[in-house]
Amino acid sequence: MKGKADRNIRRLVSGLWTVFEICCRQNMKMNVLVINCGSSSLKYQLINSDSEAVLAKGLCERIGIDGRLVYQKAGCDKEITEAAMPTHKEAIQMVLDALTNDKTGAIGSLKEVNAIGHRVVHGGEKFASSAVITDEMIKAVEECNDLAPLHNPANLIGIRVCADLMPGVPQVAVFDTAFHQTMPAKAYLYGLPLDFYKKYKVRRYGFHGTSHSFVSKRAVEFLGLDKDNSKVIVCHLGNGSSISAVVNGKCVDTTMGLTPLEGVVMGTRSGNIDPAIMEFIAKKENLDIEGVMNVLNKKSGLLGLSGGLSSDFRDLNEAAEGGNEDAANAIDVLCYGIAKFVGGYVAAMNGVDAIVFTAGIGENAIPVREKVVSYLGYLGVTLDKDANGHRGEEIVISTPDSKVKVAVIPTNEELAICRETVALV
């Protein structure tokens, strides 16, 4: 009996200690370093998790070439340092040195960095949520490298360098694909031989998941929707664009696919096309598969449609207002395509409560929002033109009597990564 009583006491103490630890973590003010590591660049932010204030931010450019650090402490002007960055290790070391600089550093020492959150592009089917970084977890990410050969290896370099320079600091990976892992098979399977999925995991994964998760959650809060009974369409529109259908906080469909090439027309990406076009163009232009993919990823979209004028909406809008027909057509193709996907997702969800615009174009391109909404009269959507005249702010742009709410909600992927990191460490 005594032994049993002792075991119960130990369990009670252990349980109380666990509760204590959780409470401590929840009340602890953490500084989270958010890292978005590319092949030759690196974006970073240092965020205080308690206030959610950005203490410092910036980027490293031209890693492996000549090197350039941009650093900005909150409330201060940008500092630009030209310096050699042969590898990501030197780049991240420069970031850490800037953060702890005696004059303009945001923190006194690296001991004040409590955790590191990394953007990782592709988690395949292995990760339906963010994960604490371990050796086993890194191996699992490496197995997804062939699904994102340009991004995942670079993301992993950032993880390894941070582990080397800041040993003992917990790290978390936040995946672009994780939010979309709730899609049902009818949404993620392609009409290809099933063996391609079983052997190679060829399926729709979706991207921008961190943004879609953040914005859809914020939409429910901002618009006063019932989180357990809500249907939201998020239009993440930028140089890369994707749309998602979210039911009760879970993604049920999204426009990007195995890669970020699928979906709506983007800055330089084609979006959806007839696959046979690839063979047709290859023969006409004497291109191999790599050459065709280069056209679809880097020379198409708004850039291609405008005759090479620009991939930037601002340039196209100015040109269109000046009478450039190609620029006007490019904008029309973009808006028409967005409206078709929105309509399709209304059908997929059997209704919609809110449509939300976010990211660079979504938050700032007034004509795009107006054109897209003009296609949605059948839903009883009416636009408040005065409200739609605002840029870059959280605002409802539909009229009070609109049957579906339409809003602009700025995305904040870095803050989302910070929150995910804090929740896990």
Structure overview:
By secondary structure, this protein is α/β, with parallel strands linked by helices. It has two domains: 31-175, 2-Layer Sandwich (Nucleotidyltransferase, domain 5), CATH 3.30.420.40; 225-414, Nucleotidyltransferase, domain 5, CATH 3.30.420.40. Helix content is 41%, strand content 17%. It has 16 helices and 14 strands. It has helices at 2-27, 88-99, 135-142, 152-165, 185-188, 194-200, 209-223, 276-285, 289-298, 301-305, 313-321, 325-349, 359-364, 366-374, 385-388, 413-424; strands at 31-37, 42-48, 53-61, 68-73, 79-82, 115-120, 131-132, 171-175, 231-236, 242-247, 250-254, 354-358, 395-396, 405-408. The strands form two sheets. The chain has an eight-stranded mixed beta sheet with strand order 5-4-3-2-1-6-8-7, with helices on both faces. It has a six-stranded mixed beta sheet with strand order 11-10-9-12-14-13, sandwiched between helices. A hairpin with a 4-residue loop joins strand 2 and strand 3 (53-61). Helix 2 crosses helix 4, helix 11 (313-321) crosses helix 12 and helix 12 (325-349) crosses helix 14 (366-374). The two termini are 38 Å apart. The model is unreliable at 16-27 (pLDDT under 50).
